[in-house]
Amino acid sequence: MSSLTVRPGNALERRRALGNLLGVSPALLAIGLFLVVPILIVVAYSLMQANPYGGVNHVFSSDAYVSLLFERQLDDSLAFADSYLVIALRSLGIAAATTAITLLVGFPVAVWLAMQPASRRGLLIFLITVPFWANLLIRTYAWILLLRGTGVINNGLMGLGLIHQPLPLLYSDGAVLLGLVYTYAPFVVLPIYSTLEKMDMRLLEAAQDLYAGRLRTLRKVVLPIARPGILAGAILTFVPCLGAMIAPELLGGGTKMMLGNLIFRQFADARNWPFGAALSLVLMAAVMLALTFYAMRAERLRVARGGV
């Protein structure tokens, strides 16, 4: 009889565990339906044959992954092709350059915002978020009106007599870079500002009392406090830039290919859904590996510092 007796403590723990499971079940269901299931569909598509008229044929094939680095010759042999590797390296370079520029621009802005009186910060943050009120497509088209041969910038320079022919500002890597920096700069400013907003200003006064100059105060006081925001802003900028599609397509004229519009064209123009799915999975896997490596490194540093 004693073996069949349920301890009150165990029953209470089971009820709590069941209640916790029921509490998170809506979130688990949403994650499963809107994250796991779509990824599984993409994985399945990447392992099928492409239908020349769009969609897929439900036949197993790994040609999509082979096509990433090889192309099939007329005799059915495989030859190394670096065209997609070049696009991937260009995407990495532009994403890294965008991240670096947004950090150089966004960090001083965030520091300046943090130094403003509390009564003024709300309005300034509001002004930074105003561009989000307009659709990204509309904002990108506005840059076309500014950068094109008969746009505002070229007409203004020609009107001032500084140039005699329009500058080729549009459809270049510089135009793509400018569009990406404009798009993602707020994603750098806001995380850095959120960390500096909590900074005790007496630390700056203490640094001045110890005869630390502005650069030394910035390096020894401000940067360590802002480091979490800097890392968060870098991730929020670098990862979306790898898959950016609108800026390369419109400001690059479709000739400055990046991974985002390459994937888009596989589904829209080339009708090679398996290859587009394979590209998407490879890009997602690379980003997840990079973020995992960063998280593991950050944890090792935290443990080395005594768990702080």
Automatic annotation (TrEMBL):
Full protein name: Spermidine/putrescine transport system permease protein
This protein's major location comes to membrane
GO BP field = transmembrane transport
Kindly give the Pfam families that the UniProt entry links to this protein.
BPD_transp_1 (PF00528)
Q: Name one GO cellular component term.
A: plasma membrane
Q: What family is this?
A: Belongs to the binding-protein-dependent transport system permease family. CysTW subfamily.
Which UniProt keywords are present, listed alphabetically? Cell membrane, Membrane, Transmembrane, Transmembrane helix, Transport
- Cellular localisation: Cell membrane
Q: Where is the ABC transmembrane type-1 domain?
A: 88-294
Enumerate the transmembrane spans. 21-47, 92-115, 122-144, 174-193, 229-253, 273-295
Q: Would the keyword Chaperone be found if you checked this record's keyword annotation? A: no
Question: Which PROSITE patterns does the annotation name?
Answer: ABC_TM1 (PS50928)
Lipid bilayer topology: Multi-pass membrane protein
- Classification of source organism: Bacteria, Pseudomonadati, Pseudomonadota, Gammaproteobacteria, Pseudomonadales
